[in-house]
Amino acid sequence: MKEKMRLRIAKLKANLKGKRAEGYVDTAVKMITAVVIGGLLLAGLYAMFNNVLLPGLAERIQVMFS
């Protein structure tokens, strides 16, 4: 039982001493990239719906009921 605790304590100390971590700049760049790509996708969908799909749909509905 004591040996298990010693091993766990040793692993914990090794993990706390480890310098592996992701920097704040890397995280910020990932967030900005995600926001920009999301914005471009939304702008593309908005343009597609307004210029292609909705006018065609309106014409089809007018043809159906005329």
Give me a quick take on this structure.
By secondary structure, the protein is an all-alpha fold. It contains 2 helices and no strands.
Can you walk me through this structure?
- The structure is a single chain.
- The chain is mostly helical.
- 86% of the residues lie in helices and 0% in strands.
- It is built from two helices and no strands.
- 0% of the residues are buried.
Class of secondary structure makeup: mainly alpha
Overall geometry: rod-shaped
Helix content: over 70%
Mean pLDDT, as a whole number? Answer: 85
Low-confidence stretches: none
- Measured by DSSP, the beta-strand proportion falls in under 5%
Tally of DSSP β-strands? 0
Please tag this protein with its features.
66 residues, mainly alpha, rod-shaped
Topology:
Elements: H1 2-17, H2 24-64
